[in-house]
Amino acid sequence: MAATRDSLDRIRNDVTGCEKCPRLVAWREESARRPPRRHRGQEYWARPVPGFGDARARLLVLGLAPAAHGGNRTGRIFTGDRSGDWLYRALHLARFANQATSVDRNDGLHLSDAYVTTAVRCAPPANRPAIDERDRCAPYLVRELRALRRIRVIVALGAFAWDAALRAARELGCELPSPRPRFAHGAEAPIGPYALVGCYHPSQQNTFTGRLKEADLNRIFARARHLVGSGDG
Q: Which residue in 5, 83, 103, 132 is deepest, having the highest Cβ count within 10 Å?
């Protein structure tokens, strides 16, 4: 991968100022204007949500998009919703996070050797980005992977994130295996310098139904810890 002068700070600034998708701009702002009762009176971020974590990370955790009343409210990805509760507990258990809770962006959470981001940076209606919205957001992930030069493992939370990781790797010049790797929970694929690992998304759709159990999620991040190693690398 070619050297770049891009920085995570520049990427974050570009992400948070992005207004390329009118439907997503309208939805994130509408979600802030009409919050559920439990969040009434709270100030919403209501902008695209940037990635978060350690600039020297070897693990990248890739989700679909911010939740309308999670990251879109708090301004930090996977923060303030049930998905984040599951994710950060697992990251803490695997020694990638200093605490197991994530309620707001000033709660003291720090990631070590891990960086968390999403394929789409604005909350989409029904959690379903359109194809053109997905494609407009795609360059941000490519830029993050270029800036995060130590990444060796990508945990993709769901099929959408898995496909986004493959597209980003191809954009970076990585040769993809043939046939194209298919998403499954626990699937692994070597993609250039990365080990891509599939994991069911810790959404309520999966956790409430038992499709994803906490032990399943913990095993994925134990595997990620094994793949990156326990030292400084």
A: 83
Architecture of the domain whose range is 8-228: 3-Layer(aba) Sandwich (3.40)
Q: Is 113 helix (H, G, I), strand (E, B) or coil?
A: coil
Three-state SS at 188: strand
Using DSSP, how many helices (H) and how many strands (E) does the chain show? 8, 6
pTM above 0.70, yes or no: yes
List pLDDT tens digits, range 180-197: 999 999 999 999 999 999
In degrees, rounded to 5, the angle at the alpha carbon of residue 196 between the alpha carbons of residues 211 and 82 is 40
pLDDT tens per residue across span 103-128: 999 999 999 999 999 999 999 999 99
Give the start-to-end residue ranges of the domains of the chain.
Answer: 8-228
Rounded distance, CA 28 to CA 67, Å? 9
The helix (H) or strand (E) run that includes residue 163 is helix 159-171
What is the secondary structure of 47-109 as a DSSP string?
S----EE-TT-SEEEEES---TTTHHHHSSTT-SSHHHHHHHHHHHHTTSBS-S--SSTTS--
What is the crossing angle of helices 131-147 and 8-16, to 10°?
A: 160
- Residue 136: phi and psi, rounded to 5, are -70, -30
Which tokens sit at 214?
A: 């906490």
For residue 115, give the amino acid letter: Y
pLDDT tens-place string over residues 77-112 = 999 999 999 999 999 999 999 999 999 999 999 999
Q: What angle do CA 67, 69, 47 make, to 5 degrees?
A: 75
